[in-house]
Task: inverse folding
Protein backbone atom coordinates (compact mmCIF):
# COMPACT_ATOMS: atom_id res chain seq x y z
CA UNK A 1 0.00 0.00 0.00
CA UNK A 2 1.12 3.54 -0.72
CA UNK A 3 1.58 5.65 2.41
CA UNK A 4 -0.96 8.46 2.20
CA UNK A 5 0.78 11.69 3.15
CA UNK A 6 -2.42 13.62 2.33
CA UNK A 7 -4.11 11.85 5.26
CA UNK A 8 -1.32 12.69 7.65
CA UNK A 9 -1.20 16.34 6.53
CA UNK A 10 -3.57 17.58 3.85
CA UNK A 11 -1.67 20.92 3.80
CA UNK A 12 1.56 19.31 2.66
CA UNK A 13 2.29 20.18 -0.97
CA UNK A 14 5.81 18.76 -1.59
CA UNK A 15 7.46 15.42 -0.86
CA UNK A 16 10.15 13.03 -1.96
CA UNK A 17 9.42 9.34 -2.43
CA UNK A 18 10.96 6.11 -3.63
CA UNK A 19 9.82 4.64 -6.96
CA UNK A 20 8.21 1.26 -6.21
CA UNK A 21 6.94 0.27 -9.67
CA UNK A 22 6.39 1.58 -13.18
CA UNK A 23 3.24 0.62 -15.05
CA UNK A 24 1.68 1.33 -18.43
CA UNK A 25 -1.92 1.32 -19.57
CA UNK A 26 -3.18 2.36 -23.03
CA UNK A 27 0.31 3.77 -23.78
CA UNK A 28 0.03 5.95 -20.68
CA UNK A 29 2.96 5.73 -18.28
CA UNK A 30 2.22 5.40 -14.58
CA UNK A 31 4.34 5.25 -11.46
CA UNK A 32 3.74 3.85 -7.98
CA UNK A 33 5.66 5.41 -5.06
CA UNK A 34 6.16 4.31 -1.47
CA UNK A 35 4.36 7.47 -0.33
CA UNK A 36 2.53 10.41 -1.89
CA UNK A 37 0.76 13.72 -1.39
CA UNK A 38 -1.31 13.09 -4.54
CA UNK A 39 -4.95 12.36 -3.73
CA UNK A 40 -6.53 9.78 -6.07
CA UNK A 41 -10.09 10.19 -7.43
CA UNK A 42 -12.23 8.57 -4.72
CA UNK A 43 -15.15 9.20 -2.38
CA UNK A 44 -16.57 11.84 -4.71
CA UNK A 45 -13.44 14.02 -4.62
CA UNK A 46 -11.45 14.47 -7.86
CA UNK A 47 -7.74 13.64 -8.04
CA UNK A 48 -4.90 16.09 -7.57
CA UNK A 49 -2.67 17.32 -10.36
CA UNK A 50 0.91 18.58 -10.16
CA UNK A 51 4.38 17.36 -11.10
CA UNK A 52 6.61 14.37 -10.32
CA UNK A 53 10.27 14.94 -11.29
CA UNK A 54 9.00 17.96 -13.31
CA UNK A 55 6.67 15.70 -15.34
CA UNK A 56 2.98 16.67 -15.21
CA UNK A 57 0.70 14.28 -13.30
CA UNK A 58 -2.50 14.09 -15.37
CA UNK A 59 -4.51 11.56 -13.34
CA UNK A 60 -4.26 9.72 -10.03
CA UNK A 61 -6.04 6.45 -9.24
CA UNK A 62 -6.03 3.92 -6.42
CA UNK A 63 -6.12 0.21 -7.20
CA UNK A 64 -8.04 -2.27 -4.99
CA UNK A 65 -4.88 -3.17 -3.04
CA UNK A 66 -4.40 0.45 -1.97
CA UNK A 67 -1.58 1.30 -4.37
CA UNK A 68 -1.82 4.83 -5.72
CA UNK A 69 -0.92 5.18 -9.39
CA UNK A 70 0.32 8.52 -10.70
CA UNK A 71 -0.43 8.78 -14.43
CA UNK A 72 2.14 10.94 -16.17
CA UNK A 73 2.26 13.05 -19.32
CA UNK A 74 5.64 11.39 -20.15
CA UNK A 75 7.58 8.41 -18.75
CA UNK A 76 9.97 8.90 -15.80
CA UNK A 77 13.68 8.66 -16.71
CA UNK A 78 14.79 4.98 -16.51
CA UNK A 79 17.43 5.33 -13.79
CA UNK A 80 15.37 7.49 -11.43
CA UNK A 81 14.85 5.79 -8.03
CA UNK A 82 13.74 8.75 -5.98
CA UNK A 83 11.41 11.52 -7.14
CA UNK A 84 10.36 14.91 -5.89
CA UNK A 85 6.67 15.69 -6.20
CA UNK A 86 4.54 18.80 -5.85
CA UNK A 87 0.78 19.06 -6.04
CA UNK A 88 -1.23 21.91 -7.58
CA UNK A 89 -2.18 23.53 -4.28
CA UNK A 90 -4.84 25.90 -5.64
CA UNK A 91 -6.77 22.97 -7.10
CA UNK A 92 -6.39 20.84 -3.96
CA UNK A 93 -7.34 23.62 -1.55
CA UNK A 94 -10.45 24.36 -3.62
CA UNK A 95 -11.49 20.71 -3.33
CA UNK A 96 -10.74 20.78 0.43
CA UNK A 97 -12.96 23.84 0.87
CA UNK A 98 -15.81 22.43 -1.24
CA UNK A 99 -15.60 18.98 0.38
CA UNK A 100 -15.55 20.40 3.92
CA UNK A 101 -18.42 22.71 2.99
CA UNK A 102 -20.32 19.64 1.85
CA UNK A 103 -19.84 17.91 5.24
CA UNK A 104 -21.15 21.01 6.96
CA UNK A 105 -24.13 21.62 4.66
CA UNK A 106 -25.11 17.93 4.80
CA UNK A 107 -24.94 18.10 8.61
CA UNK A 108 -27.17 21.20 8.58
CA UNK A 109 -29.86 19.63 6.38
CA UNK A 110 -29.77 16.55 8.63
CA UNK A 111 -29.83 18.50 11.88
CA UNK A 112 -32.47 21.11 11.00
CA UNK A 113 -34.66 19.46 8.33
CA UNK A 114 -34.02 15.73 8.99
CA UNK A 115 -32.95 15.31 5.39
CA UNK A 116 -30.03 12.90 4.96
CA UNK A 117 -27.59 13.37 2.09
CA UNK A 118 -28.06 10.52 -0.38
CA UNK A 119 -25.70 11.76 -3.10
CA UNK A 120 -22.61 13.98 -3.43
CA UNK A 121 -20.88 15.21 -6.59
CA UNK A 122 -17.81 17.42 -6.77
CA UNK A 123 -16.06 18.51 -9.96
CA UNK A 124 -13.82 21.42 -10.93
CA UNK A 125 -16.91 23.48 -11.69
CA UNK A 126 -19.83 22.03 -9.74
CA UNK A 127 -20.75 20.90 -6.24
CA UNK A 128 -24.05 19.21 -5.39
CA UNK A 129 -25.73 17.03 -2.79
CA UNK A 130 -28.95 15.09 -3.26
CA UNK A 131 -31.68 15.06 -0.63
CA UNK A 132 -34.85 12.95 -0.46
CA UNK A 133 -38.14 14.78 -1.05
CA UNK A 134 -39.16 17.99 -2.86
CA UNK A 135 -37.15 21.23 -2.56
CA UNK A 136 -37.40 22.71 0.96
CA UNK A 137 -39.15 26.05 1.52
CA UNK A 138 -37.04 29.17 1.03
CA UNK A 139 -37.33 30.02 4.72
CA UNK A 140 -36.03 26.59 5.78
CA UNK A 141 -33.11 26.94 3.36
CA UNK A 142 -32.27 30.33 4.94
CA UNK A 143 -32.21 28.68 8.38
CA UNK A 144 -29.90 25.94 7.09
CA UNK A 145 -27.49 28.52 5.63
CA UNK A 146 -27.58 30.65 8.81
CA UNK A 147 -26.72 27.55 10.85
CA UNK A 148 -23.83 26.75 8.48
CA UNK A 149 -22.50 30.31 8.71
CA UNK A 150 -22.72 30.12 12.51
CA UNK A 151 -20.51 27.02 12.53
CA UNK A 152 -18.09 28.64 10.05
CA UNK A 153 -17.71 31.67 12.36
CA UNK A 154 -16.96 29.47 15.38
CA UNK A 155 -13.79 28.25 13.61
CA UNK A 156 -14.32 24.71 14.95
CA UNK A 157 -11.48 22.23 14.39
CA UNK A 158 -11.95 19.60 11.68
CA UNK A 159 -10.01 16.45 12.41
CA UNK A 160 -9.63 13.01 10.88
CA UNK A 161 -8.92 9.82 12.89
CA UNK A 162 -8.90 6.12 12.22
CA UNK A 163 -11.22 4.16 14.53
CA UNK A 164 -11.58 0.39 14.88
CA UNK A 165 -14.93 -0.55 13.30
CA UNK A 166 -16.54 -1.50 16.64
CA UNK A 167 -15.68 1.98 18.01
CA UNK A 168 -16.68 3.80 14.84
CA UNK A 169 -20.21 2.39 14.87
CA UNK A 170 -20.76 3.89 18.34
CA UNK A 171 -20.10 7.40 16.96
CA UNK A 172 -23.07 9.47 15.69
CA UNK A 173 -22.02 8.91 12.08
CA UNK A 174 -24.30 10.49 9.49
CA UNK A 175 -24.06 7.29 7.41
CA UNK A 176 -22.99 3.77 8.41
CA UNK A 177 -19.39 3.04 7.32
CA UNK A 178 -18.94 1.01 4.15
CA UNK A 179 -15.55 -0.47 5.03
CA UNK A 180 -14.77 -3.67 6.96
CA UNK A 181 -11.49 -2.58 8.59
CA UNK A 182 -10.61 0.58 10.52
CA UNK A 183 -12.84 3.56 9.69
CA UNK A 184 -11.48 7.03 8.97
CA UNK A 185 -13.84 9.45 10.66
CA UNK A 186 -13.77 13.15 9.85
CA UNK A 187 -15.16 15.20 12.72
CA UNK A 188 -16.30 18.80 12.75
CA UNK A 189 -15.85 19.19 16.47
CA UNK A 190 -19.11 18.39 18.26
CA UNK A 191 -21.15 18.98 15.08
CA UNK A 192 -20.61 16.22 12.55
CA UNK A 193 -18.98 12.79 12.26
CA UNK A 194 -18.57 11.33 8.77
CA UNK A 195 -16.76 8.26 7.52
CA UNK A 196 -14.66 9.80 4.74
CA UNK A 197 -11.32 9.31 3.01
CA UNK A 198 -11.13 12.76 1.47
CA UNK A 199 -9.10 15.85 2.29
CA UNK A 200 -10.57 18.65 4.41
CA UNK A 201 -9.62 22.06 5.77
CA UNK A 202 -8.38 22.17 9.39
CA UNK A 203 -11.09 24.44 10.78
CA UNK A 204 -14.56 25.53 9.73
CA UNK A 205 -13.55 29.16 9.21
CA UNK A 206 -11.47 28.06 6.21
CA UNK A 207 -14.64 26.84 4.49
CA UNK A 208 -15.60 30.49 4.14
CA UNK A 209 -18.94 31.53 2.76
CA UNK A 210 -21.42 28.79 1.73
CA UNK A 211 -24.20 29.67 -0.74
CA UNK A 212 -26.90 27.64 -2.44
CA UNK A 213 -27.28 28.64 -6.08
CA UNK A 214 -30.10 26.31 -7.15
CA UNK A 215 -32.56 23.72 -5.83
CA UNK A 216 -33.25 21.31 -8.66
CA UNK A 217 -36.21 18.95 -8.40
CA UNK A 218 -35.29 15.49 -9.71
CA UNK A 219 -38.22 13.09 -9.40
CA UNK A 220 -38.82 12.58 -5.69
CA UNK A 221 -35.40 14.03 -4.82
CA UNK A 222 -33.82 17.46 -4.68
CA UNK A 223 -30.38 18.29 -6.02
CA UNK A 224 -28.83 21.15 -4.06
CA UNK A 225 -26.28 23.13 -6.10
CA UNK A 226 -23.96 25.09 -3.83
CA UNK A 227 -20.57 26.79 -3.56
CA UNK A 228 -18.09 27.26 -0.75
CA UNK A 229 -15.06 29.44 -0.07
CA UNK A 230 -13.28 30.78 -3.15
CA UNK A 231 -15.99 29.58 -5.50
CA UNK A 232 -18.68 31.41 -3.49
CA UNK A 233 -16.52 34.57 -3.47
CA UNK A 234 -15.94 34.47 -7.24
CA UNK A 235 -19.63 33.79 -7.85
CA UNK A 236 -20.52 36.75 -5.65
CA UNK A 237 -18.18 39.08 -7.57
CA UNK A 238 -19.63 37.89 -10.88
CA UNK A 239 -23.19 38.50 -9.68
CA UNK A 240 -22.23 42.01 -8.51
CA UNK A 241 -20.70 42.69 -11.91
CA UNK A 242 -23.84 41.50 -13.72
CA UNK A 243 -26.30 43.31 -11.44
CA UNK A 244 -24.28 46.53 -11.68
CA UNK A 245 -24.67 46.45 -15.45
CA UNK A 246 -28.38 45.70 -15.15
CA UNK A 247 -29.09 48.42 -12.59
CA UNK A 248 -27.15 50.93 -14.73
CA UNK A 249 -28.99 49.91 -17.91
CA UNK A 250 -32.38 50.09 -16.22
CA UNK A 251 -31.47 53.09 -14.01
CA UNK A 252 -32.72 51.40 -10.89
CA UNK A 253 -31.57 49.90 -7.58
CA UNK A 254 -30.76 46.23 -7.07
CA UNK A 255 -33.91 45.51 -5.05
CA UNK A 256 -36.09 47.15 -7.73
CA UNK A 257 -34.61 45.13 -10.63
CA UNK A 258 -37.37 42.48 -10.80
CA UNK A 259 -40.08 45.18 -10.95
CA UNK A 260 -38.13 47.12 -13.58
CA UNK A 261 -37.86 43.99 -15.74
CA UNK A 262 -41.57 43.22 -15.29
CA UNK A 263 -42.35 46.79 -16.43
CA UNK A 264 -40.04 46.39 -19.41
CA UNK A 265 -41.66 43.11 -20.41
CA UNK A 266 -45.11 44.73 -20.28
CA UNK A 267 -43.83 47.58 -22.48
CA UNK A 268 -42.37 45.14 -25.01
CA UNK A 269 -45.65 43.22 -25.12
CA UNK A 270 -47.58 46.45 -25.68
CA UNK A 271 -45.14 47.55 -28.41
CA UNK A 272 -45.51 44.20 -30.17
CA UNK A 273 -49.27 44.56 -30.06
CA UNK A 274 -49.10 48.08 -31.49
CA UNK A 275 -46.67 47.04 -34.24
CA UNK A 276 -48.89 44.09 -35.16
CA UNK A 277 -51.90 46.38 -35.37
CA UNK A 278 -50.03 48.95 -37.48
CA UNK A 279 -48.76 46.21 -39.76
CA UNK A 280 -52.26 44.92 -40.31
CA UNK A 281 -53.47 48.41 -41.26
CA UNK A 282 -50.53 48.99 -43.60
CA UNK A 283 -50.96 45.59 -45.24
CA UNK A 284 -54.63 46.33 -45.79
CA UNK A 285 -53.74 49.70 -47.36
CA UNK A 286 -51.15 48.03 -49.62
CA UNK A 287 -53.76 45.44 -50.65
CA UNK A 288 -56.19 48.25 -51.50
CA UNK A 289 -53.50 50.00 -53.58
CA UNK A 290 -52.74 46.79 -55.51
CA UNK A 291 -56.46 46.20 -56.16
CA UNK A 292 -56.91 49.80 -57.39
CA UNK A 293 -54.04 49.37 -59.87
CA UNK A 294 -55.13 45.90 -61.05
CA UNK A 295 -56.93 45.32 -64.37
CA UNK A 296 -60.63 44.61 -63.89
CA UNK A 297 -62.32 42.02 -66.05
CA UNK A 298 -65.87 40.74 -65.76
CA UNK A 299 -66.18 42.50 -62.42
CA UNK A 300 -63.06 40.79 -60.98
CA UNK A 301 -59.84 42.64 -60.03
CA UNK A 302 -56.92 40.43 -61.10
CA UNK A 303 -53.90 41.34 -58.99
CA UNK A 304 -50.56 40.12 -60.32
CA UNK A 305 -47.76 41.02 -57.97
CA UNK A 306 -44.13 39.95 -57.56
CA UNK A 307 -42.58 40.82 -54.23
CA UNK A 308 -39.11 42.39 -54.03
CA UNK A 309 -36.51 40.25 -52.22
CA UNK A 310 -36.14 42.76 -49.33
CA UNK A 311 -39.80 43.70 -49.07
CA UNK A 312 -41.42 44.49 -45.74
CA UNK A 313 -44.57 42.62 -46.78
CA UNK A 314 -45.28 39.04 -45.93
CA UNK A 315 -46.79 37.15 -48.86
CA UNK A 316 -49.24 35.33 -46.53
CA UNK A 317 -50.42 38.51 -44.81
CA UNK A 318 -50.80 40.39 -48.09
CA UNK A 319 -52.72 37.50 -49.67
CA UNK A 320 -55.00 37.28 -46.66
CA UNK A 321 -55.72 41.03 -46.91
CA UNK A 322 -56.25 40.93 -50.72
CA UNK A 323 -58.84 38.15 -50.73
CA UNK A 324 -60.67 39.63 -47.73
CA UNK A 325 -61.98 42.22 -50.25
CA UNK A 326 -64.75 41.02 -52.58
CA UNK A 327 -64.21 40.16 -56.26
CA UNK A 328 -60.43 39.72 -56.23
CA UNK A 329 -58.14 37.13 -57.76
CA UNK A 330 -54.56 37.55 -56.44
CA UNK A 331 -51.42 35.98 -57.87
CA UNK A 332 -48.14 36.49 -56.08
CA UNK A 333 -44.58 35.28 -56.32
CA UNK A 334 -41.23 35.90 -54.66
CA UNK A 335 -37.74 34.51 -54.33
CA UNK A 336 -37.46 33.40 -50.71
CA UNK A 337 -34.21 31.84 -49.47
CA UNK A 338 -33.32 30.76 -53.00
CA UNK A 339 -36.74 29.25 -53.69
CA UNK A 340 -39.35 30.52 -56.15
CA UNK A 341 -42.48 30.66 -53.96
CA UNK A 342 -45.93 31.44 -55.32
CA UNK A 343 -49.47 31.88 -53.98
CA UNK A 344 -52.81 32.21 -55.75
CA UNK A 345 -56.07 33.11 -54.01
CA UNK A 346 -59.55 34.45 -54.65
CA UNK A 347 -62.32 36.19 -52.74
CA UNK A 348 -65.24 34.14 -51.46
CA UNK A 349 -67.60 35.46 -54.18
CA UNK A 350 -65.36 34.52 -57.16
CA UNK A 351 -66.38 31.21 -58.79
CA UNK A 352 -62.89 29.86 -59.44
CA UNK A 353 -61.74 26.43 -58.24
CA UNK A 354 -58.10 26.93 -57.35
CA UNK A 355 -57.52 23.21 -56.76
CA UNK A 356 -58.61 22.53 -60.36
CA UNK A 357 -56.19 25.24 -61.49
CA UNK A 358 -53.45 23.60 -59.47
CA UNK A 359 -53.88 20.31 -61.35
CA UNK A 360 -53.58 22.21 -64.64
CA UNK A 361 -50.47 24.01 -63.38
CA UNK A 362 -48.87 20.74 -62.34
CA UNK A 363 -49.67 19.21 -65.74
CA UNK A 364 -48.19 22.13 -67.66
CA UNK A 365 -45.22 23.14 -65.45
CA UNK A 366 -42.87 21.48 -63.05
CA UNK A 367 -44.40 23.15 -59.99
CA UNK A 368 -45.27 21.77 -56.58
CA UNK A 369 -48.05 22.91 -54.32
CA UNK A 370 -51.22 22.32 -52.40
CA UNK A 371 -54.06 24.21 -50.81
CA UNK A 372 -57.81 24.69 -50.73
CA UNK A 373 -60.49 25.74 -53.30
CA UNK A 374 -59.87 29.44 -52.52
CA UNK A 375 -56.09 29.45 -51.96
CA UNK A 376 -53.19 27.44 -53.36
CA UNK A 377 -49.46 27.85 -52.92
CA UNK A 378 -46.20 26.12 -53.69
CA UNK A 379 -42.76 26.40 -55.25
CA UNK A 380 -41.46 26.42 -58.81
CA UNK A 381 -38.02 25.19 -59.95
CA UNK A 382 -37.04 28.77 -60.94
CA UNK A 383 -38.42 32.29 -61.20
CA UNK A 384 -39.03 32.01 -64.93
CA UNK A 385 -41.32 28.96 -64.48
CA UNK A 386 -43.02 30.75 -61.58
CA UNK A 387 -43.89 33.72 -63.81
CA UNK A 388 -45.18 31.45 -66.60
CA UNK A 389 -47.35 29.53 -64.12
CA UNK A 390 -48.79 32.74 -62.65
CA UNK A 391 -49.49 34.09 -66.16
CA UNK A 392 -51.48 30.93 -66.95
CA UNK A 393 -53.58 31.50 -63.80
CA UNK A 394 -53.98 35.14 -64.85
CA UNK A 395 -55.35 33.96 -68.23
CA UNK A 396 -57.80 31.68 -66.39
CA UNK A 397 -58.94 34.65 -64.31
CA UNK A 398 -59.46 36.83 -67.42
CA UNK A 399 -61.62 34.03 -68.87
CA UNK A 400 -63.95 33.91 -65.86
CA UNK A 401 -67.64 34.50 -66.61
CA UNK A 402 -68.85 37.96 -65.60
CA UNK A 403 -69.82 38.33 -61.99
CA UNK A 404 -73.43 39.37 -61.57
ZN1 LIG B 1 -15.10 14.21 3.39
Result:
Amino acid sequence: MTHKLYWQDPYRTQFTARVVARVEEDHRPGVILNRTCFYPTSGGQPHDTGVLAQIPVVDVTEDPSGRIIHWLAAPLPEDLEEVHGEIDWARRFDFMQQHSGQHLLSAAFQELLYRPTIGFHLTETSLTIDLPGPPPEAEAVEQVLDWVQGVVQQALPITARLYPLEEAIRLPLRKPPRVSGPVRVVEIQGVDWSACGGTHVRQTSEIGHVVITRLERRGDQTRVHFLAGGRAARDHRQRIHVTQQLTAQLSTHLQDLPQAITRLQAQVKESHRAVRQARELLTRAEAQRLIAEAPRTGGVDVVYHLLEPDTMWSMEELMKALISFPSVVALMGAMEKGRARWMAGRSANVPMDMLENLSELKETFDVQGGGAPDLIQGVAPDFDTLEKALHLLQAFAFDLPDLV
